[in-house]
Amino acid sequence: MTAKTFFIAILLFAQIGFVSGQDNVDTEEMVGFACYFGGQPSKTVKKVTKKLKNRRYKAIKSMLTSDNNAERYMAVIALEKLHDLKAIKLYDIDYENIDVIKNSNELVSICSGCSSFYKTELHRLFEPDMKNFASNWLNYNFKDFKK
């Protein structure tokens, strides 16, 4: 087997693995900050980023009760950061919704890079070993934040 044939075979197998790795995920309910070959954010991440930039905090708050688990996760991390920065006030109902999400066994799709696609329970995204999952996105989107 020549080097060229070997290289083509590797690319083919990588592509097959890439496609089959995505079979079990829902791209409409996906959280990912650097997905696929281009390192693009998922639709939900783009949606929340746009709402943040446009200061549509009430719209983000309404995502706490969304049927979309990716939106619910993104709402929690964005709202908690906004609250820490004293940009918004969270009320009892917000804390109740956040608590439900942080303890939820509902599934959310995750992408990371070009080959890591999987589903996990929402509560897992709030556990210590996953704390860094959204840290770069949070740091970037709040680095120059002003109330």
Automatic annotation (TrEMBL):
Alphabetically ordered keywords of this record: Signal
UniProt keyword Signal present: yes
Endpoints of the signal sequence: 1-21
Top-level taxon: Bacteria
Protein name, entry field: DUF4476 domain-containing protein
Organism: Carboxylicivirga mesophila
Lineage: Bacteria, Pseudomonadati, Bacteroidota, Bacteroidia, Marinilabiliales
